[in-house]
Amino acid sequence: MTHDDEAVAALAKALAHPARIRILRLLQATPGCIGGTIVDAVGLAQSTVSEHLRILKSAGVISGEIDGPRICYALHPDATAPLAAFLTGLSAASADACCTTFAPRVDA
């Protein structure tokens, strides 16, 4: 496994929860979103949202900046570039490509 493979897998894992996708969509629509607003919009317990934010932050997908008693979150769109490139490569595969299906070996 290459370093690129590990980076793509780590990003995919960080994005692999519907609540995290909702958080990213919210941050995309409202840049600089405050943590409390995210909790209200996502509709989960504060501790659950905090864990999802921690996972996204650890993956480098978002950042959180302390602003007084609040934390302001923002997207890092370039952080998902390795995953986007991988997915683009998958969808760009030629429609004319042929796959060979191998029949299971039957011993006589």
Question: Which descriptors apply to this entry?
Answer:
alpha+beta; Arc Repressor Mutant, subunit A; 3-stranded antiparallel β-sheet; 5 helices
Q: Report how far apart the termini are.
A: 37 Å
Overall shape:
elongated
CATH fold descriptor: Arc Repressor Mutant, subunit A
Biggest sheet strand order reads 1-3-2
SS elements, strand count = 3
CATH superfamily: Winged helix-like DNA-binding domain superfamily/Winged helix DNA-binding domain
**Helix-strand category:** alpha+beta
Helices, by number, come to 5
Rg calculated over all Cα atoms: 19 Å
CATH architecture: Orthogonal Bundle
- Average pLDDT over all residues: 86
Largest sheet: 3 strands, antiparallel
Q: Name the helix and strand elements from N-terminus to C-terminus, one letter apiece.
A: HHEHHEEH
State the name of the first-level CATH class. Mainly Alpha
| Strand proportion | 5-15%
Count of spatially separate domains? 1
| Overall helicity | 40-55%
User: Low-confidence stretches at least 5 residues in length (pLDDT < 50)?
Assistant: none
How would you summarize what this structure contains?
With 108 residues, the protein is α+β, with helices and mostly antiparallel strands.
